[in-house]
């Protein structure tokens, strides 16, 4: 049955347009149609999607040399009883005892030149891809992991093939071994890439924070350097390929001890630059670079994307860098205002250096952000009108961000903790949307006249930002290992959220008073008890499900704006941002996933059951 289905998936993939990567929704529609025409049950859907995706990328993967491919294996494929392999910070050290197939697969892959990683999950893989170490991935994983990863793979345009495990019980699992070996042995066939990919733009955004380019774009004003390994610049090493997902955070944060002996005047710059280049997904610089590229023809997503992006003017790079600089400044200040102890999985700046120094570091980053845009550089000038437009856009974004944060703080410190959903959404629109708007506008404006796109960008960003913030609220209930580390931190910190407002709106009077009592300074419940009670009341009011519905609503509005954008490359970028920024939480409390807000056209694939 699996052999027959795989053959059909290959037939389907052969008929698909490969000029652009598909979205997960499009892949789902195609897979559903195949199952309907083959009279097969719904339960095969995820498996079929993985197979069609693998066949879709087969030719693109073959065009990547084996030494630029990553082979990903799961821990659970090992033989559980008596396995001599040990785990450390670099993953599983296979002893090649012959008790399972991991060593066999690994030997074949390494003989061909693959990089091999035995680890779980997709975050580390994305880091490796964006870091520029590999250009394609082949892997083995349980079906549910592949289903979660498929949208990221498709959207980013990463050539990827996978074979699902035959079970998901994480112990003594099995796999179609001949399929895996056939996949590994995919022969190298040099060819130009046919499918558009955002990978080169992601890498270009990350490179802004590498030593040489960063020093060129934002040269140090002071000469003093901090002591200790890797203190002043982010330079990811190839050991990332051997690191487990739990260890893939940013490099160690600079400490107060490293400031000893450093000129006090230079210390602020060193701390600020260290925080600027460390941690984060660099999504805002990516948006600026991608918007600029889209307006210039979209060549950065093509086969020669790396060369195209190497020719991007430094002025555009500085604009992208400035967006991240403002963002990082707001994070330093937010962590102080919200009382958050961690950022990027490490102690926040104010925890390491004190509140006063952290405030000053945030102020320094704001000044640096404006300086990146306010000065001309010889040979890379920006005309005065463009410069004024960019500065005005960023200043407006800065003001709105401060208004939104101010409203949140005033509510947090007020005696009356009542909040309406509309008030919460207004705060979200002010706090989160301006960053997306400034990033998009900066890229479009650097490419030329952007007057016709000002209103669409604002509407798109407002809806994207609000939906993103609601997702952030839901993620708070699942915890965030790469950021604040504390599940339910919004309730403990007394921050106004849509979840809180919806609960107050839909609970009866007694339960409403119970909820309000959790935010009282004199509440005698422990943190754990407060979180448990809040979750109980949230679930009773059905706020998790309502929040997912609101995400869908704002996503649909953002997509409607994108639909009306005439320039195809920019329109595709907006769709890409919707699908990647609005990643639904895995655990929101409701246990339900929302349905896609749009239905792609159904493709007739002409496959019948036999």
Automatic annotation (TrEMBL):
**Matching Pfam families:** DUF116, polyprenyl_synt
Q: Where are the stretches annotated Disordered?
A: 225-251, 586-610
Q: What name appears for this protein in its UniProt entry?
A: Polyprenyl synthetase
Keyword terms, alphabetized: Magnesium, Metal-binding, Transferase
Q: Which InterPro entries match?
A: DUF116 (IPR002829), Isoprenoid_synthase_dom_sf (IPR008949), Polyprenyl_synt (IPR000092)
Which cofactors? Answer: Mg(2+)
Top-rank taxon, per record: Bacteria
Please provide, alphabetically and separated by semicolons, the GO molecular function terms listed in this UniProt record.
metal ion binding; prenyltransferase activity
Q: Which SUPFAM superfamilies match?
A: Terpenoid synthases (SSF48576)
Tagged with keyword Transferase: yes
**Among the record's GO biological process terms, what is one?**
isoprenoid biosynthetic process
Residues in a coiled coil are none
Q: In what ranges is there compositional bias, type Low complexity?
A: 587-601
Q: Does the keyword Signal apply?
A: no
Q: What taxonomic classification does the UniProt entry list for its organism?
A: Bacteria, Pseudomonadati, Planctomycetota, Planctomycetia, Pirellulales
Q: Which family does it belong to?
A: Belongs to the FPP/GGPP synthase family.
Q: Tell me which positions the record assigns to the signal sequence.
A: none
């Amino acid at each position: 049955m699996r052999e027959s289905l795989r053959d059909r998936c290959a037939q389907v993939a052969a008929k698909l347009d490969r000029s652009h990567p598909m979205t997960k929704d499009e892949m789902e529609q195609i897979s559903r149609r195949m199952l309907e025409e083959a009279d097969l049950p719904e339960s095969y859907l995820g498996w079929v999607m993985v197979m069609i995706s693998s066949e879709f990328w087969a030719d693109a993967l073959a065009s990547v040399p084996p030494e630029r491919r990553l082979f990903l294996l799961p821990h659970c494929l090992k033989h559980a009883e008596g396995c001599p392999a040990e785990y450390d910070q670099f993953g599983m050290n296979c002893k090649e005892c012959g008790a399972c197939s991991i060593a066999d697969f690994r030997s074949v892959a390494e003989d061909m030149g693959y990089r091999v990683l035995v680890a779980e999950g997709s975050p580390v893989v994305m880091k490796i891809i964006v870091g520029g170490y590999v250009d394609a991935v082949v892997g083995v994983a349980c079906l549910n992991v592949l289903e979660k990863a498929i949208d990221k793979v498709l959207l980013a345009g990463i050539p990827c093939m996978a074979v699902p495990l035959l079970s998901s019980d994480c112990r003594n699992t099995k796999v179609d071994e001949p399929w895996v070996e056939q996949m590994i042995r995919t022969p190298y066939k040099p060819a130009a890439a046919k499918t558009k990919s955002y990978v080169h733009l992601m890498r270009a955004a990350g490179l802004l924070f590498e030593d040489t380019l960063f020093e060129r774009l934002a040269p140090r004003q002071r000469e003093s350097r901090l002591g200790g390994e890797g203190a002043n610049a982010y330079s990811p090493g190839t050991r990332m390929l051997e690191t487990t997902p739990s260890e893939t955070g940013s490099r160690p944060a600079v400490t107060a001890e490293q400031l000893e002996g450093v000129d006090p005047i230079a210390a602020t710059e060193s701390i600020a630059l260290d925080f600027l280049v460390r941690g984060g997904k660099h999504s805002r610089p990516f948006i600026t670079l991608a918007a600029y590229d889209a307006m210039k023809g979209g060549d950065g997503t093509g086969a020669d994307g790396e060369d195209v992006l190497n020719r991007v003017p430094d002025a555009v790079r500085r604009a992208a860098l400035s967006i991240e600089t403002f963002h990082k400044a707001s994070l330093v200040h937010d962590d102080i205002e919200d009382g958050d102890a961690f950022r990027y999985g490490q102690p926040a700046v104010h925890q390491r250096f004190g509140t006063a120094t952290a405030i000053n570091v945030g102020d320094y980053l704001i000044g640096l952000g404006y300086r990146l845009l306010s000065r001309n550089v010889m040979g890379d000038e920006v005309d005065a009108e463009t410069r004024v437009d960019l500065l005005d856009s960023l200043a407006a974004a800065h003001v709105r961000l401060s208004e939104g944060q101010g409203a949140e703080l005033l509510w947090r410190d007020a005696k009356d903790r009542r909040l309406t959903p509309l008030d919460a959404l207004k705060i979200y629109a002010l706090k989160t949307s301006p960053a997306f708007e400034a990033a998009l506008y900066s890229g479009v404006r650097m490419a030329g006249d952007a007057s016709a796109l000002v209103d669409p960008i604002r509407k798109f960003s407002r809806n994207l930002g609000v939906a993103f913030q609601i997702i952030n609220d839901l993620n708070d209930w699942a915890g965030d290992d790469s950021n604040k580390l504390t599940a339910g931190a919004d309730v403990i910190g007394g921050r106004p959220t849509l979840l809180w407002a919806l609960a107050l709106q839909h609970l009866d009077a007694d339960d409403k008073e119970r909820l309000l009592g959790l935010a009282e300074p004199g509440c005698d419940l422990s943190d754990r008890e407060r979180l448990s009670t809040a979750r109980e009341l949230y679930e009773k009011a059905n706020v998790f499900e309502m929040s997912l519905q609101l995400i869908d609503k704002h996503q649909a509005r953002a997509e409607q704006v994108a639909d009306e954008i005439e320039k195809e490359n920019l329109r595709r970028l907006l769709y890409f941002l919707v699908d990647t920024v609005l990643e639904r939480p895995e655990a929101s409390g409701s246990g339900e996933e929302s349905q896609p807000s749009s239905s792609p056209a159904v493709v007739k694939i002409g496959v019948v059951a036999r």
